[in-house]
Each structure stands twice: as C-alpha cells, then as structure tokens.
Amino acid sequence: MRRRASLVLLAFAVFFAAMAPTLRWYAFPRLAKIPPNQYQETVLEARPATLLDYSTLKAEKVESITIVQTLKGNVEESRRIERDAGRDVVVWDSLSYVLGPDGTMVSKIPERYIFDAHTQDPVHATGEMVDGDPVRRDGIEFKWPFLTEKRDYRYFDAQTRTSAPIHYKGTRVFRGLEVYYFEQTVPWTEVPMPKTMPVKGITPDVLAKTGLTRWYTTKRMFWVDPVTGAPVNGEEIHREELRNARALMGRDTVTVFDGHVKMREDYIAYVVELVESNRLMVLLLVSYLPWGFTALALLLLGLSLWLEARSRRPAPPEPAPVTAPV
Length: 326
Known about the structure:
- The protein is α+β, with helices and mostly antiparallel strands.
- The chain is 30% helix and 38% strand.
- Strands 1, 2, 3, 4, 5, 6, 7, 8, 9, 10, 11, 12 and 13 form a 13-stranded antiparallel sheet that branches.
- Strand 1 and strand 2 (58-62) form a beta hairpin.
- The two termini are 44 Å apart.
C-alpha cells in the first residue's frame, strides 16, 4: 500500500511540476490579452491654462481646459487584420477631444492604433493613422506591455507622428500601488495643423497660404503598473504656438495652448480600481500559480520518497516463541 501511495504522489508531483512552466510560458501569452471590444474614456484637465481666442487672435488665461480621450475597440477591423497577421490583433479607434472653458470644441484628433493583443507591439495595416494621415508606428502608445521592465521604451507621439525614447525614472508608490515612473520630453517641433479647426471656414490649407506654422513641445509623465502595463496616472506639460504669424496677427509667435494637463481625480480612482482587479489574473499566471505548483510538486515528491523509503525497510524479526518450563 505504501508503494502504491508513493507512486500516486510521484505522479501528482510530476503533473504539478509540468504545470508550473506551462502556465508561465504557454498559458500566459495566450490568456493575458487586451480584449478587442474594450471601451475606455478618460477626462483630463488643465487648470488654469492659456488658450488662443480665435475671435480676437490673442492668447488669454482661462480657468480650465478639458480633454476627453476615448479608446474604442473596433472588433470588425481586428478580425479583418487577424486573417492576414496570423495573431490576435486589437484595433483602437481613439479620439482626443479638447473643450474650451465654455464647452466649445477647440480641437479633435482621431487616431487608429493597431497592435498585438499580448505584446502591445504595433501591427502595421491599412487604416493606421493620426488625424487622417497614414502613419507607421514604431513603439508603444497608450499602454505598456504586460510585465513592464525597468528600462526605456520607444513611445509614439501623435502630434509629431514620430517615436522617441520614454525614459524609466524609477519606482514609486501611487495610491498604494508600486508603479514605474516614465518621462519623455518632446522638444519644439513643427507639426501639422489639425484637420478640424474651431472656426468655420478656416482650414489647414488656408492657414498654410498665410505662412503660419504650428509648433509643439511637451513633457509627458506616466505612472505605470508593471504587472498589467496600464498607466494609472498621466500628465503633460503641453505648449503649442503659431509662428510666422506677423502678417496675420501682428506678432511673430502666438501661443495656442499652454497648460499642465492632469487626469481628473474621479478617473484616476476608476483606473486604479480597474488595474487592481486585472493584475490578479496576471499574477496568478506568472507568479502565484507557477510558484505554488512548484512548491506543491516538491512537497509531493518528498512525501513520495519518504513513503517509498518506508516501504523498503526490512520487516522487524518475529520474537522467538516462549517455551514453557518443564
């Protein structure tokens, strides 16, 4: 019986020992993925800010600027691209909608971001664009990979349509979560005019004929949960200018926007709660279950060897029969 029990324990030990690497290296890449139908809305604010008043063509201080950023998964496009890509693909249709203090539209920039559902690497396909302009992304945008590393990443900037390193600046604690802090500074760069302008009749072509050029710089900051790769907070110190503006506005340079953009408090709380619920699944696949199964396999192996050793011990000698005295 002991030998049979030891063989059963040995079989279970082998099973759990095999399951540990299987969960980490086989199940994790196939189960930890961004869903193709994800929808997310984030509201950011700059309080106070400087904004160009197009009616007077002067930059004025305003109480606040609101930026509503939506990410909507396009399931149909994901399936279409997956047929050729041979892997799970997510297509995010994004819109960055900027509202002035009176609620009127200041600008809106649509994007289509196509990426691998697990690694977050960009997938190049027809439809990848920023504000209607075809682009070919190099690096991440919006989200870091699962199990983010303490290193620099390439990050795509939608304004310049280029990628540059975003630098790892250390580990911090944010709302009780241990996060990685990343920072990127985009120097003053000439960028395209938005296709949709806040004043009717004014188009990028009309502005181009006046010699106006649009310039932009930003310092962007992200606090990223390293388990899920999701930013739990983001900020930008953002500036835009119109240059070569003397003929139209009487000055060479006019500020279009200047402000420190931060996530609104209620959205930070929502994102932190969402990340805390999602990180458990990732930790189960890459840490808790593999290490737990490894420890269990070692325990079962030890029990199996102990029972086997006991089954091999020689039986104690039978006592000699006691002879009655004559």
